[in-house]
Every structure is written in structure tokens, then in C-alpha cells.
Amino acid sequence: MKKFIEEFKAFINRGNVMDMAVGVIIGGAFTSIVTSLVEDILSPIIGLFGGKNFDSLSVNILGEVTLNYGKFITAVVNFLIMAVVVFLIVKAMNTAAAKFSKKEEAVEAATTKICPFCKTEIAIDATRCPNCTSMLEE
Q1: Cβ-contact 74, 39 below 8 angstroms
Q2: 27 pLDDT more than 80
Q3: How far apart are CA 86 and CA 55, in angstroms?
Q4: CATH topology of domain 2-108
Q5: What is the pLDDT of residues 32-62, one digit of tens each?
Q6: Strand partners, 114
Q7: 116 exposed, middle or buried (CB, 10 Å; 0-12, 13-18, 19+)?
């Protein structure tokens, strides 16, 4: 049991777990912002064209039982907005990561060159090829 507790402490103290916890907290706060955007701004604007707010759309099934499909439509719009925002964030991060990795590859490529005589890879600052011993031009 002691080993289990030590492993759990090591797991909790990892950076990934803390990053995930911060992400969940920020995600919860962001969800309330998007929900407010949809319910307080977008739904009334769309309601101008449709005649009423989505949240008030419902069907009376039996007596006091109502089917509030307008709230479901609002939840779907919330989800779609969240999905678009997450997609844009991930796309921006992937683009930045791709640009960063290309710069690293360019630095690695600049450390070697090809001998024009024997076509082997040699150091970029070499003045003579170590394989064919040809003199290289600067």
C-alpha cells in the first residue's frame, strides 16, 4: 500500500497532471462564457429572425410534461461553438509547432554539406574531403 501511495504522489506531481487540471478549470470557465454568448446574445439575435428565442421552444406532451427541444438546440449551438474554438486553438498550436520544428531541421541541415566529387556528407567547415581527399572550394 505504501508503494501505491508513493506512485500516486509521483503521478500527481507530474507536470502533465497539473496542466490537465488547469485546462479543466479554464475549460469550465470558458464553457460558461460560451453558454452566455449563445443564450444571451446569439439566441435573441436568431430569435429576431425566427420570431422567438430558442430556449422557449417546447412541446406539451401530456399534461405538465413538456419537451424542451429549444434548450437542446441551444446546447447543440454551444457545443458547435466550443468545437470550433478548440479546433482553431489546436490548429494554431500545430502550425506553431510545425514552424518551430522546421527551424530546428534547418539548423541541423546547415551543419553538413555534400562533397562535389565523391558525394559523401562532410562537415560544413571542411576544406578537404576526408573520404576522397579532394580540396573543397569555400
Answers
A1: yes
A2: yes
A3: 25
A4: 1.10.1200
A5: 888 888 778 877 777 777 666 677 778 888 8
A6: 121
A7: exposed
Contact between residue 62 and residue 43 where contact means Cβ atoms under 8 Å apart: no
Pair 125, 136: CB distance under 8 Å: no
The pTM of this model reads: 0.49
Distance (Å, whole) CA 34 – CA 22:
18
Number of neighbouring beta carbons within 10 Å of residue 73: 16
Helix axes 69-109, 15-36, angle to 10 degrees: 140
Cα–Cα distance list, 29 to 22, 37, 66, 91, 92 (Å): 11, 13, 30, 21, 21
Contacts of 59 (CB under 8 A, 6+ apart): 66, 67, 69
Question: Cell numbers 574531403 label which residue?
Answer: 129
Q: Tell me the pLDDT tens digit for each residue of 57-104.
A: 788 888 888 898 888 887 888 788 878 877 888 898 888 888 887 766
